[in-house]
Amino acid sequence: MIGLNWLAPYDFSPATILGYVLVLGFYGYGLLKMPEDNRPGSGRILVFVVGVMLCYGVMQTRFDYYSQYMFFIHRGQHLILHHLGPLLIALSNPLPVMQFLYSRIKPGIRRALSPLGWIYRFLQHPAVASFLFVGLIYFWLWPPIHFNAMLSRDLYWIMNWSMLLDGLLFWWLILDPRSPVSGNALGYGKRILLLALVAVPQIILGATIVFSQGMVYDVYEVCGRAWPMAPETDQLLGGLITWIPPAMMSILGILIILRRAMREDGKAFPYSEKLKATHS
Predict the structure, then answer these.
(1) Which of 33, 175, 194, 203 has the most beta carbons within 10 angstroms of its beta carbon?
(2) How far is Cα 228 from Cα 65, in angstroms, rounded to an integer?
(3) pLDDT higher than 80, residue 3
């Protein structure tokens, strides 16, 4: 019974449940229907499901209750929604499944969905994507906005969904499995630069919260905390979660990109082949 209480939604949202069911349902349908040669391996499928379920867990289990009444748990919630969950989903490379599902859509429906493609390409512009990635964190942590978001059920859901969707867009841009040599994907160097650039303002924001004098987010005093923790400790832990793990995620992303670039065997950096030929 204790386990069921932890897994049961604190604030039941039919739209959220439906969204996650549709994502897993369409993904499973694509896996079953697509040719076996194009089907991702079990490891990639597992990473995708884990990423989706982590996001679901922080939105529709008892975890969500503590996120609303403890600042540091809230920051952990957004760490998963904006960083870890989307990174795992993008790392699993669901592109073959997405392409297969798209090929099953009727041409008329594709034409009707074409405006979404324009919006997607705009949001995936490197400058726009990086600005939104950092800007949304600052926006929702601006004390007056954060106060209202934690007291308004509708605004709270908008906040969480915006963090999740923005995280998916950004990490897909960074971990796009297509090679920049043979496709239109963003170059590896630009991806590394973006990861470094978005880390800096997150570090500054986290450090500002950690070293701030007095309470920055007093909404948790108004609503009461789930645990008898000192407000200063709660804010300190929340600031550290805002500061350190996102920076580590950027470093992890850079290492993944460097590994991919090295596996290109010189294709990502074409001058290396010329240097080899010169020395030979």
Answers:
(1) 194
(2) 15
(3) no
